[in-house]
Amino acid sequence: MIVAIDGPAGVGKSTVARLLAGRLKYLYLDTGALYRAVAWTVLQRGVDMADQKAVAALLPLTSLKMEFENETVVVRVNDKDVTGELRSPAVSASASVVSAIPAVRAWLLPVQRSIGERGSVVAEGRDIGTKVFPSAPVKFFLEADPTVRAERRHRELVAAGHAREIEQTSTEMAGRDSRDRSRAVAPLVPAEDAHHIDTSRLSAAEVVDLMMGIIAAKL
Ligand code: C5P
């Protein structure tokens, strides 16, 4: 069983996907973490992100592993645990740049699908319902007011120790979303058969309850 969840930044995808995976006892597949790990590698090696060939040339030299340890997910790049470094603003911005490179998307596709073959998963990202698991029996597309999304992302960043103004978070998020929506390969668009949920005025638990009702009808 695969539950696909897509949507822009700050819409609550990760929180809801993690809770839902816990309720269903499925694996939680955070596909953004894979794009972030590629971005981390590119930043670490000092490769120019605008140079698509140079970024593509890094991929065969990179071993990327996503390990599921109890409730937590550990991401390793060439055996180094980079999980704690993946959510910084620099990595977020770079992830949406490298994710527009077709070679990066092609490289990560089998990685994501092989995790899906391990069993039932709740997979979350931008192209899960359209490209990664197009035949997933249940698909959700989450949306929310841009102001609410910026506030959520801002609270998360401040809690993680990134001091900044909300305007900065809002501008960065808008830039990232516009890159994700306008790229040529696998842009952020809802799958035709996705259930749309506006999370602006709902708590994470309320979103999960809504989703459980829809999933229950399919099980
Ligand atoms: O979901 P998260 O914010 O961690 O994703 C980081 C970036 O990775 C996104 O802005 C997007 O550019 C990219 N991404 C993607 N396709 C996915 C998941 C993430 O392009 N399935």
Provide a short characterization of the protein structure.
It catalyses: CMP + ATP = CDP + ADP; dCMP + ATP = dCDP + ADP. This protein is of the alpha/beta class.
Structure description:
Helix 1 packs across helix 9, helix 4 packs parallel to helix 8 and helix 7 packs across helix 8. The chain has a five-stranded parallel beta sheet with strand order 2-6-1-7-8, with helices on both faces. A three-stranded antiparallel beta sheet has the order 3-4-5. It starts with a strand and ends with a helix. The chain has a single domain, classed as 3-Layer(aba) Sandwich (Rossmann fold). It has 219 residues and is an alpha/beta fold. It is globular, with a radius of gyration of 17 Å. The model has no long low-confidence stretch (mean pLDDT 94). It is built from nine helices and eight strands. The protein is 49% helix and 17% strand. The chain binds cytidine-5'-monophosphate. Cytidine-5'-monophosphate (C5P) binds next to helix 2, helix 4 and helix 8.
